[in-house]
Amino acid sequence: MSRAGKHPVKLIDGVSAAIADDVLTVKGPKGEIKLPLDTKNAGLVDVVVESDQVVITPKDAEDKKSRAMWGTMARNVRSAVEGVSNGFSKAMYMKGVGYKASVSGNKLVLVAGYSHDVIMEIPAGLTVQMGETPTEFTISGIDKCLVGQFADKVHKVRKVDPYKGKGIFYKGERIRRKEGKKK
User: Fold this and answer.
1) Chain centroid to CA 170: how far?
2) CATH fold of 88-170, please?
């Protein structure tokens, strides 16, 4: 049984949901998110929008794939409701000599110790805000998946070096420092 799918998703004040053409549309103060209901997994879950909640149920409670999609769909709907009401953000910072970031238009420019600047296009629906220093920035948007994907892409530009302790970090990320070679 899915523990994530057992409870219906409550719609917060100012958030509405509607189903049309196998697409669940969640609208809120920050924007709208469209979730496809049946693309590859034809007919594994039923999604019903009631007055103030969205109820997700498996079509076959004995089928393992149906139970798995039940929990997945419930989490996706919860994330959509939270995204259109509060939004999501990932705070990041850079550590290293000469490392810095800047935003110009819809591009994120990273100086991360390479012979060239790394220029990344910011996806539609996301914003990047610079922090107090040129090494701190925050990626934010309403789609949790998109925010996480872009943050991971930025994180991989310069992976954290456990020997020198430099790279691109998530705020709150702790790395285990390694000792260098001994003579």
Assistant:
1) 13
2) Outer Surface Protein A; domain 3 (3.90.930)
